[in-house]
Write a structure and sequence with these properties.
Structural class: mainly alpha
Number of helices: 6
Strand content: under 5%
Order of helices and strands: HHHHHEEH
Distance between the termini: 182 Å
Strand order of the largest sheet: 1-2
Largest sheet: 2 strands, antiparallel
Length: 293
C-alpha cells in the first residue's frame, strides 16, 4: 500500500508538472524565470566586475535559478512527430543544404497543431468525390477533399518557409548567446583571479596593519616613559627653582643686614675715635700734673 501511495504521488506530481508545462501560463512563468535568472546572473557578474557589494548573492540566486530551470527542462516530453509525408506527398520534397531535418520536424509540429485546431476538417467524410486521400491520425481514417488538402499544403509550405527563417534567427540568437556566455565566463574567471589577488593583498595588508599596531604600541610605551621622565624632571626643576628663590631671598636679607652692619661699624669707629681723643687728653693732663709736682 505504501508503494502504491508513493506511485500515486509520483504520478500526481508528474501529471501536475505536465499540466503546468503544457499550460500557456506555465510556459510564460518558465520563460520569465529563465530570463530573469539569466539577467540576475549578468547583473551579479557586473557587480563583481565593478566591485559592488552583493555580487556574490546575485550570482548565487541567478545561477541557482538557472540550475532549477535546466533541471525542469530535462523532464520535458519531446514533441510528437507525425509522418505526414504519407498523407501529403508535397511535404516529402527535400532540398539541398542545411535545415532539411529541422524543416521536416517543424512542418510536422505545424501540421499537428493545425490538425488539433481543425479536427472537423479531417473528420468529415466526403464520399463520392474524385482525388480523395486518406489522413493518418489518432482517430479512424477519414477521406479528405483534394482541394482542401492542396490549400492546406500551400499554407504549410508558407509556414515552413517562415519557420525556416525563424530557425535561422534562432541560430543567430543562439550564437550571440554563446558569445555572451563566453564573455561572461571570461569575466567570471577574471573576477575569480582578481578575488584571489585581492585576498592575498588583504592578508598582506592585515599583517602590515598588525605590525603597524605593534609599532604604535611600542611608541606609546616609549612616549609614556618619556612623559614620566619629563614629569620627574619638571618636579626637580621646580625644587631647584624654589631653592634658588630661597637663596635670593636670603641674599636680599643679608644685603640689607650688611648695610646696617656697615653703618653700625662706622658709628663704632667714630665712637672709638672720640674715645681715643678723650684718653689722649686724659693722659696728657696726667703727664702735665706729674711734671708740676
Amino acid at each position: 500500500m505504501v508503494n502504491n501511495a508513493m506511485n500515486m504521488n509520483k504520478e500526481n506530481i508528474k501529471s501536475r508538472y505536465r499540466t503546468i508545462m503544457t499550460w500557456e501560463g506555465g510556459q510564460r512563468l518558465f520563460n520569465f524565470a529563465y530570463s530573469i535568472g539569466a539577467a540576475i546572473v549578468i547583473c551579479g557578474a557586473l557587480f563583481k566586475i565593478l566591485h559592488i557589494q552583493g555580487g556574490d548573492t546575485l550570482l548565487c540566486i541567478g545561477m541557482g535559478t538557472e540550475i532549477v530551470m535546466f533541471i525542469l527542462t530535462a523532464f520535458d516530453r519531446p514533441p510528437k512527430e507525425y509522418h505526414w509525408e504519407d498523407v501529403f506527398p508535397e511535404l516529402d520534397r527535400k532540398t539541398d543544404g542545411e535545415g532539411d531535418d529541422a524543416e521536416t520536424s517543424a512542418a510536422s509540429q505545424v501540421i499537428a497543431t493545425q490538425v488539433d485546431r481543425q479536427p472537423a476538417l479531417y473528420a468529415e467524410p466526403s464520399a463520392g468525390m474524385a482525388g480523395q486521400v486518406i489522413a493518418a491520425g489518432p482517430a479512424a481514417p477519414q477521406p479528405v477533399p483534394a482541394a482542401d488538402v492542396a490549400s492546406v499544403s500551400r499554407d504549410y509550405v508558407e509556414q515552413m518557409s517562415a519557420i525556416t527563417e525563424q530557425l535561422a534567427q534562432l541560430r543567430e540568437t543562439t550564437q550571440s548567446l554563446n558569445a555572451v556566455s563566453a564573455t561572461l565566463l571570461q569575466s567570471y574567471q577574471a573576477i575569480t583571479d582578481n578575488s584571489s589577488a585581492l585576498q592575498a593583498n588583504s592578508h598582506d595588508y592585515i599583517s602590515q596593519m598588525s605590525d603597524l599596531n605593534r609599532n604604535i604600541g611600542g611608541l606609546n610605551t616609549i612616549y609614556e616613559i618619556q612623559l614620566k621622565s619629563i614629569s620627574s624632571q619638571l618636579e626637580s626643576i621646580d625644587r631647584v627653582n624654589r631653592g634658588i628663590k630661597d637663596i635670593r631671598d636670603m641674599y636680599e636679607k643679608s644685603a640689607a643686614q650688611s648695610a646696617r652692619y656697615c653703618e653700625e661699624t662706622e658709628k663704632m669707629a667714630r665712637y672709638m675715635q672720640q674715645l681715643n681723643q678723650i684718653y689722649e687728653k686724659m693722659i696728657h693732663n696726667s703727664t702735665v700734673s706729674m711734671y708740676k709736682v
